[in-house]
Amino acid sequence: METGDIISRIRITLRGKVQGVGFRPFIYNLATDLNLTGWVANTGQGVVIDAEGPLSNLDAFLYRIEEEKPPLAHIQGLEHTYLQPEGYTIFEIRESSEGTAKSFWVLPDVATCGDCLEEMFEPQNRRHRYPFTNCTRCGPRFSIMTALPYDRPNTSMDRFEMCGACLGEYEDPQNRRFHAQPNACPQCGPKLSYLDAGGTKQTGGDDALMRAVEALRDGCTVAVKGVGGFHLMADATNEEAIGQLRKRKQREEKPLAVLFPDFESVQQVCDVSSMERRALLSPEAPIVLLHRKNNSLPDNIAPGNPYLGALLPMTPLHHLLTRELGRPVIATSGNLSEETLCTQNDEALQRLDTMADGFLVHDREIVNHLDDSIVRVVLGREMVLRRGRGFAPSTFPITRHWGFGSVDLQVLAVGPHMKNTVALYKDGEIALSQHIGDLVSPHSVTTFQNTINTLTRFYEIQPELVVHDFHPDYASTRYAEDRDMPRDAVQHHFAHVLACMVDNEVPPPALGVSWDGSGYGLDRTVWGGEFLLVTEEGFSREGHFRSFMLPGGEQAVREPRRAALGLLYEMLGKQVFEHNDLMSSLRWSPPEHDVLCGMLDKQINAPRTSSAGRLFDAVSALLGLGNHNRYEGQGAMRLEFATGIFLSPKETKTGPVRSPAREPWISEEEILGTSRNLAAPFLSGIPWSDERYTFRILEMESGKSPAEAVHRYTYVVDWQPMIEEILSDLARRREVSEIATTFHHTLADIVVGMAQLVGEPRVVLSGGCFQNRVLTEMTVTALREAGFQPSWHQRIPPNDGGVAVGQILAALQKEAPKTMV
Ligand SMILES: [Zn+2]
Ligand SMILES: [Zn+2]
C-alpha cells in the first residue's frame, strides 16, 4: 500500500494573528475541499485543528494553510503531529474553549516576517538596514523576557526608551507595531558594535556589520551575537577557515550547521522535499538536516556525512550579514564542545577569546539562552531532534487517554545528564524547557539551575515533587536530592517511551522499544536495548538485547572498536585474541591488546550492557567504518550512511540485496557455552529468520531484579547468529552497503519479532537510535506490514532531550491514584 493512502490524522496548533481574521471559516472550507473530517477551535494556545483523511490530503492541507491563509492572518508558530485516526465523520467549527491558562503561555521567538524584511531593504525607510527591526508578527520573545506578562518593562528592551516615531507606532491600534514590545529603530533601539579579539571596540552601527563581513571574507572566525546566544561564524566556502574554526573549537568531525542567505542558495547544495522546505521557511526557522546533492561546499563542514544542517536567516542581522557576504556561512554555537551556549557580551569575550578573531555584538541583552532547533524529516514527518529557538519553551497537554487529565500536583522533572532539558507539570499541561546541554561543566549546571528558576517563575509553579533519573551520579539527580521535597526516580528507558507516548497521544498499554547508548537499569546494570511493556501501572522489562562487556567502560563510547571486541569476546571468549584478522582490523597496539585482554578475562572495568547504541558501534567498527567516535553517535551514523539509503521508502531505490549464506542454527549448548551472562537456563529458543540476517529470541527465566519481578520470563534477543553472518559476509567481501542495509533490516525484524511475542498492537519507538532515519523507516514499515500500529517521535526529541517529559508522566502515573478523588 502507498503510504499516501493511509488514513491518518493531523493535529495542528497555530499561533499568531489567527483569531478574528476569518481563519476558522478558511480552515473549514479548505478541509471540506480536501475531503477531511475533524474540527477547528480557538483555544488559549491559539487555533487548534484536528483533521483526518488520506495522508496525502493531510500533507496538502498543511502546505495550503500557509500558502492560502486569509490576507490579514499571520502565522508565528505552527506545530503539527500526525496521530492515529479518531473516526470523525464531519468537519466542524467547534465552540472556543478557554483551555490553557495564560500563565502557561510563554511565546517562542519568531523569525523575521516578510513585511519587516521588505522595510529593511527599502532605502527610504527609516529602518533601512536596521538589524533589530521587528513587529507584532516577528522578533525576539522568550529570549528577552525577564518576567510575565510579556510587556516591555519585563524584557531586556526595558532600558531602551522609544522615540516619538516608535511610540506612535506602538500606540496606534491600526499599526503593525501596535504593542510590539521589542519595537525599535536606529534612533532609539539597540546598536551593533564590532570588537577585536581582545574586546576593544573597533566601530559601531552599519560599519560594524561591514567589518564582520570583511573579516568573514578574509577567512576569519567571527563570534556573532544572535537571538539566544553567540554563533561562531566562518565562510562556509573556505575550507581553511572551517578547519581553523574546528581546531579552535576542539570539534574534530562533528557536523557544523550552515546559514544560507536564502532558500534558492540551499537548493543549489541540497535536495529539499516539500516538508523540508516547509520547516526551513517556517517561523521557527530551525536547522534542517538535508541530503547534500553535490560537493559544492567543502567536505570538512561535515566530514564523511551525506547530510548538511542548513538554516535560513532568523533575524534582520542575519539577513543583512548573509546578503552582504553573498554566500553561506558556518553558524555553530559559541561554546566549547557540548557546554551550554554563551549569551552575555563579557562572558563571550572570556569564553570565546581563543576561538574568535572578532566579535559582532549588540547592547540588547539575551535573558534566556536558546540554541538553534534541529529538525529531520523522517517518513514525511518532522522529527524535532533539538528544541531551542522558535520552539521553546513549549507545552504538551496530557490527554484524556491517560485517564488522569487533572492530577492536582505541581511537578518538576530535572531530566537526564546529556542533552539535558527540564520539564514542569501543572493543571494537565507539561512545559518543556529549551535544550540546556550536557551537564558536564559548572557553567552548564548553573544554566540548568537558572532555567529551572526561570521556568518555575514564568509558569508560576511551586513544585511539590521532583522527578529525576534513576542514575545516582547525574548532576541532575544530585540537584533533586538537594531539594527539600519528595522525590521520585524514573528509569531512563521508561521515560523515553513515555515521552514518545505523550508525543503521539498513545494510551497504555503499548510496547516501548527504547534503544540508545546507555541508561542506568533497575538492576543497576547498563541498559540500552530495551523492550518495555507500558501499562497504566508502570512498566515491565519484556526483553532486551543479549548483553556484552564494554572494556574500558566510558572509553568504549568513544571507541566503537572496544564495543566490537566486547561483542566478539562474548561470542568467542579468549579465542578472540587468536583471530589475527579480526584483531588487526581493530588496530590495537600491543600494550592496548594486553590491557584489554586483562579487563575482559578478569571482568574489571568492563561493565555489561544491553545497549543497542553500542551494538551499532560494534558493527560499524567490524565493517571498518571507523574505530573512534569523534562525537556522540558517530558510529551509528556511519552505519546508517553506509546503507546508501537517503530517501523515504516509497522513493527508495536500493540495489538487489543478496541473501547471505545461512549458518546452521547454533545449538542451545553452544549458546550456553559462550554466554556467561545467561545466568538462568533459557526455556526455548525461538528462531526468527527471513532473507535478512538470522537472529534469535530466547526466553529466559528472569533474575530477581525489581524490573523483572512481575515477570517470570524475559526475552533475550541474541545477535550472535547475525554477527557470525556479518563476519562471513566480510570474509567473502560482500559490499559494506549491503551488509549495513541487511543489518538495519534485521533490527527492524527484531522489533517485529518482539512485538509478535508481546502481542500489543501499539508499538512505540524511542531513544537516540531512532534518530537514525533508515532504522526508523524500516522498522515502521515492517511493523505496519505485520499489522502493528507504530509510533515514533515528532515534536519531542527521541534522544535524551525528551526524557524530562517522560519523567513527568511516570511521576503522574504513580501519583494519580493518590490525588484523584
Ligand atoms: Zn515583522
Ligand atoms: Zn525609535
Oligomer designation = single chain
Quote the average pLDDT.
88
Uncertain runs with pLDDT below 50, 5 residues or more?
649-690, 704-710
Strand content: 15-25%
User: Which percent range fits the helix content?
Assistant: 25-40%
- Computed CA radius of gyration, to the nearest angstrom: 27 Å
Number of helices: 24
Counting DSSP E segments of at least 2 residues, the number of strands comes to 33
Shape: globular
Structural class: alpha+beta
Q: Which CATH architecture of the domain at 192-362?
A: Alpha-Beta Complex
Biggest pleated sheet: 12 strands, mixed
Distance between the termini: 47 Å
CATH topology of the domain at 192-362: DHBP synthase
Overview of the structural elements:
α5 crosses α9 and α21 runs antiparallel to α22 (736-758). Among the domains are: 3-99, 2-Layer Sandwich (Alpha-Beta Plaits); 192-362, Alpha-Beta Complex (DHBP synthase), CATH 3.90.870.40; 393-495 and 799-819, Nucleotidyltransferase, domain 5. 32% of the residues lie in helices and 22% in strands. The strands form 5 sheets. Strands 6, 7, 8, 9, 10, 11, 12, 13, 14, 15, 16 and 17 form a 12-stranded mixed sheet that branches. Strands 29-30-31-26-25-24-32-33 form an 8-stranded mixed sheet, sandwiched between helices. Bound molecules: zinc ion (2 copies). One zinc ion is lined by residues 162-163, 165-166, 184-185, 187-189. Its EC number is 6.2.-.-. Keywords: Hydrolase, Ligase, Metal-binding, Transferase, Zinc, Zinc-finger. GO terms for molecular function: acylphosphatase activity; carboxyl- or carbamoyltransferase activity; double-stranded RNA binding; ligase activity; zinc ion binding. Pathway: Protein modification; [NiFe] hydrogenase maturation.
